[in-house]
Amino acid sequence: MALAVGIDLGTTNTVIAAVRNGVAATIPGPQGRRLIPSIVSFLPSGARLVGPAGTERRLMDPANTIYSVKRLIGRAWESPEVQQARPKLPFELREGPKGGTVIAARGETFSLPEISAFILGHAKAVAEAHVGEPVGRAVITVPANFNDLQRAATKTAGRIAGLEVLRILNEPTAAALAYGPQDKAHERIAVYDLGGGTFDVTLLDLAGNVFEVLATAGDTALGGDDVDLIVAERMADDLLAKHRFDARAEPTAFGKLRILAEHVKRELSTQEEHVVSVDDIVPGLGGTRVAWQFRMTRSDLEWAALTLIERTFKVCGHALEAAGCEPAELDRIILVGGATRMPMVARKVEQFFGRAPVVRINPDEVVALGAAIQAALLDKTKQRAGMVEHPRIAEESVVEPLPATDEARPPSEPPPGLPVVSKKDPRPPSPRPPPVAQVVARAPFLSPRPTKPLVFEIPETRAVLPRTTQLGAAVARGGAPSQRPAPPPLPSGPPRRSPPSGPPPLLSFEAPPALAPSAPRPAPLLIDVTPLSLGVETVGGFCDRLIDANTPVPCDRTRTFTTASSGQTTVTVRVAQGESKRFEENTFLGEVELSGLTPAPRGETKIAVTFVIDPDGILDVKARDDSTGREQTARLQLVGAQTSPAEVEEMRARHAAHPIGESAGVLPARRPIAGEA
Amino acid sequence: MATTDALTLFLQSLPKRSYYEILRVPRTAKAREVKSAFHGFSLLYHPDRHVGASDEVVRLAAEIYKRGVEAYACLSRPPLRERYDRALEDGKLRLDASAVAEDLPAPPPPMRTLETIATTPRGKQHALKADRLIAIGKLDDARVQLVSACQCEPYNGELAERLQALYEALALEPL
To answer: Which pTM was predicted?
Structure first.
């Protein structure tokens, strides 16, 4: 039977996970990588390279290497997001059919969902190769603040990749599901999710096995990439001052700086200061290259990123206001997303909420793990609802609060293609799995506390394990890593399950050793909400709200519309999402056209239009003629989204036939088959 | 198909139930009780709790659940709940479609009548007629009058703006 998986389709990285034998685990690629870069590169032959193989081509062939599609997906061509991003991206964007956006590469054009589908298809193939069974269904996560069009486009991407999309799930909600309930009967938590390209904050009430989302808020253009950009700008300034070289004028040079900037940012999460020496950016006399050194301290970075981080707390404020609660009322703050590794984020979060945040599960993987749990819950072939246990999280994804010593977190690998000499790292760069996976895998071996249990599942009985919040607090208060905090005190209490002897199986799906029998924890139920208000346009350009933001989904609302003139046979209703009172300031979703009305004097025909938001957060419209009682055809003409089943089928065929490039063993499982469709 | 029958019966009974009766809480229930009642309701009727059941059961559960959401969205927001309580006194079981959030956009401030905006005697005459026509909903006739008023006062920006708004209103399919 086809496996149901959870996929975190990220701006910078994609992670795929599945629940097997009651354990949720992320699925590594052939080289042990758990993060698949969300990059698609098209070779001169037209074949595609996805993931790690595509990364290397970002510098070699920027015009045909597509990244950050998530920032554009579901956006109309005319939207400010697309128009602002266009000059900054090295690849070509064009206006597509129905006002949508398409990407041109190697003489072909691809819609944005098609590009995402390449990434999803790659993730699917990675999972199939590793697990050895077909992957047919998936829960795909999106930022909580995604609107209807963005969600619909993501769902389309899943379908194009040949997946049955069980659910479009909000990332912070997925993270909350992965963390699961604490031992308290009722608690209120916040999920602070700072990813590569988006920021979300979600507040939830956990009562027993019910996860109720109270409010969610976000900024779809705020993430770790923006920090990279700030650092790259600093570097460009430095180059200009030292070598009179304007990197901003050369896209390739600036592209290199961005990759270098990300490296510096990562390093500064563990070190106080970092120096990079590069000699292939600045052109010198006679075709030589000038060596350039750049030094940055952590406080430099923190000053530079301060305004960005402050912006997240404004968003947090909105969410708290919508939920009607105070920061102090929250029992747990969970950090999600790679950008929360910056020490200043944890510090600022603690300042804002007055409570140390928790990082128990790898912040890069937690969303995919939560999605995998939801996929297992929605997998009707496997189980009947209510009979499922809450899966545990595989031990390799469980981090103790990030170890802050230099040994515990090896310096990250220098980006490929750049001869970087790091002063702090005397070892030559060697091919290794990415730093993130390594931290997770290595921490247990390097830990000075060998007796610490590696299995960190949520306790079934109360007061057996210490509250993780306290552990989180210990490290977050540990301050600068250089001062090497004392190891958190070993949990006292009765001797507990000892860790499995020998190294833990890094890449295995096997359940941890049998645990003391306990009552199965009942399956969780997620009550998620719609992030944005839904409204229709009224006379004078106002937006008449039908469904409020933060209303649980699925939900619906019926409104009666009438004809304005006698004999009128069609009525058009314009629909938008957003919080503004002015219709124009909200995101225009499309028009509902009610046609084929029976001609009647004005005002006599009454059409009841029902707006339904489904559990995916996607809008559906139904209409009924109240005077005749018959179902009316309601056509929702979406902006730039080609979602008719026929079109999806066509793109799916094209996707399946598209050749996969040769890529040095990154994906050995599948080779293009001639004529495959 | 006992489940289907039970769900169908419950769904059919919903139009006769108040929001309190749908969630099974007393009129005096506190916010916390409403919340926990909604959690109980969700565990019974949320479509995700019926994964693997027949399509008909899933559809019925979803229909019921959406009514529960409507009830909860109203009862969990104090200003809406207050309004609903008043409506309930009048025998209305559902809050009308126009009732949304507490921070419902304030209705646009009552516009100044066109007559007060117009400054010349002739302009005022046309504007007054336009006011009256708008009041009875004859927008197109009002437009004719307002155009005349604007012709009397080409310098009157506010009048021109109102004409523009009227054009926009006419271009829209009235709701």
So the answer is: 0.75
